[in-house]
Amino acid sequence: MWVKKYSGIPSFIHDVQRIVYYIEKIKVNGVLERYFRPEGKPAQKIKAIPVETNKLRLYAIRLSNNILILGNGGHKKTKTYNEDPVLNECVEHLVQLSFILQLKIDAGVLKLEHNELIGDLSFYFKKQ
Hints:
The protein has helices at residues 2-7, 13-29, 85-107; strands spanning 37-38, 46-49, 56-62, 68-75, 110-113, 116-119. By secondary structure, it is an alpha+beta fold. The strands form 2 sheets. Strands 1-2-3-4 form a 4-stranded antiparallel sheet. A two-stranded antiparallel ribbon has the order 5-6. A hairpin with a 5-residue loop joins strand 3 (56-62) and strand 4 (68-75). It is globular.
């Protein structure tokens, strides 16, 4: 998990604290759009924390104002996540998951009810 990896590195302490601050705000106020930096295509629902410039990124899927799926992240060393193999892999896993979840929601086998995902949450990732 990225938190363990980066929280012990002095040059990243402020960046980890900023991301934790946003997660705490989300826990209190909800999964509001203003807490995220959009990533990828809008239909993919991929977001990054924090909104401000930061050396670290945490990627997530924002399903609603009540449901957030945290993914992975890392040290942002390039202008876009696509240019960094590690960050690109983090986002691509979330893109696959977002696609699967949307298919299941559209098929009616998964439902968003307030702050819960109800239904079939099984899925498999295909190695690329």
